[in-house]
């Protein structure tokens, strides 16, 4: 991964650690200690897995692809969306409608 994205990796670690139980808090998560409720972890995905970001109908032609292949790098802080790196352009994007292939890592696909 390019050094430019190391900040994304760090943000991902902090986000997931805050939703993981710790002995220091008696088995509670930092999120739970702060907010008084257990965090929802259904949206958690493995860092660096392959993701396909849906392209809205208004932004594509009839025969254009419906999704962009990306790499998952984290969670948006201000919105309920995922942060992704577009595999073709290398651009960082945010998207809510994403399909994940959790057992696939794009860096391993290049053989």
TrEMBL record:
The keyword Magnesium applies. Residues 49-108 form the Retroviral polymerase SH3-like domain. Keywords: DNA integration, DNA recombination, DNA-directed DNA polymerase, Endonuclease, Hydrolase, Magnesium, Metal-binding, Nuclease, Nucleotidyltransferase, RNA-directed DNA polymerase, Transferase. GO terms for molecular function: DNA-directed DNA polymerase activity; endonuclease activity; hydrolase activity; metal ion binding; nucleic acid binding; RNA-directed DNA polymerase activity. The keyword Magnesium applies. GO terms for biological process: DNA integration; DNA recombination. It holds the Pfam family SH3_retrovirus. This is Retroviral polymerase SH3-like domain-containing protein. The lineage of its organism: Eukaryota, Sar, Stramenopiles, Oomycota, Saprolegniomycetes.
């Amino acid at each position: 991964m390019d050094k430019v994205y190391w900040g994304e990796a760090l943000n991902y670690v902090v986000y997931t650690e805050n939703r993981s139980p710790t002995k220091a808090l008696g088995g509670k998560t930092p999120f739970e200690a702060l907010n008084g409720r257990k965090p929802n972890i259904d949206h958690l995905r493995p860092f660096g897995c392959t993701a396909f970001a849906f392209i809205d109908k208004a932004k594509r032609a009839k025969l254009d692809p419906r999704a962009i292949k990306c790499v998952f790098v984290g969670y948006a802080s201000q919105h309920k969306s995922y942060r992704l790196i577009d595999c073709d352009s290398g651009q960082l994007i945010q998207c809510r409608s994403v399909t994940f292939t959790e057992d696939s890592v794009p860096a391993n696909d290049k053989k």
